[in-house]
Design goal:
With 118 residues, chain A is of the alpha+beta class. Chain A contains three helices and four strands; from the N terminus they run βαββααβ. Chain A has a domain of 79 residues: Alpha-Beta Plaits. In chain A, α1 runs antiparallel to α3. β4 of chain A pairs antiparallel with β4 of chain B, so a sheet runs across the interface.
């Protein structure tokens, strides 16, 4: 089922801003993953400096989530968030077979329809 | 079906390097998309400064592909590649309902098992 609407796209300000690129291979079975993931997005949205998030995961369990932040300090604070730390521990123990995390400074951004209304 | 192997992960050098974060909503139907996407990865791997690529797309047609490059000049050259330009035009006309492209400098990277053998 395809979507026509761009609801999955983050609506971001002009660069510069920061991205956390989180790529991860899920273990088998849900084991509470869906609920945790939903809660983490909800919690992230409440954090100072959070700008938006985009996420995709294929049927093979490999997924990429990119969250966008106003500053490196905002990313560091999110990493230290206690409820997020608990989720990070669960990720290592239960939900992820492996992951990679990269922090990057976004310097340029453009879309297919740069003039489109948001 | 889940994978145990980390084959989907790019094997990258230590930062700094550059990332092209390409998020896109597919239109319905394949219309040659699969063949083009496979060819573009093959072509990208041949370009100077190409470091790796990771990609995920969900059943809703929203996907994220992150390609990694040694420099901004390598990214600019890839954007100008003639066969890639043809694919870009096809993307706007046929394959994508919408997309966003962001260029970022990766400053920090770590994995779940930083000591793991590659």
């Amino acid at each position: 089922m395809m979507k026509d609407s761009p609801a999955a796209f983050a609506q971001l300000p002009e660069p510069p801003y920061y991205a956390v690129i989180f790529s991860a291979q899920r273990t088998e079975g849900d084991q509470g993953y869906g609920q945790m993931a939903e809660r983490m997005v909800e919690l992230a949205r409440e954090q100072p400096g959070f700008l938006g998030v985009e996420s995709a995961r294929g049927a093979d369990g490999f997924g990429i989530t990119v969250s966008y932040w106003a500053s490196e300090a905002a990313i560091a604070a999110w990493k230290r968030n206690l409820e997020h730390q608990s989720a990070q521990a669960g990720g290592k123990k239960v939900w992820y077979a492996d992951y990679q995390l990269r922090v990057a400074k976004v310097e340029l951004a453009y879309g297919m329809r740069p003039e489109a209304e948001v």
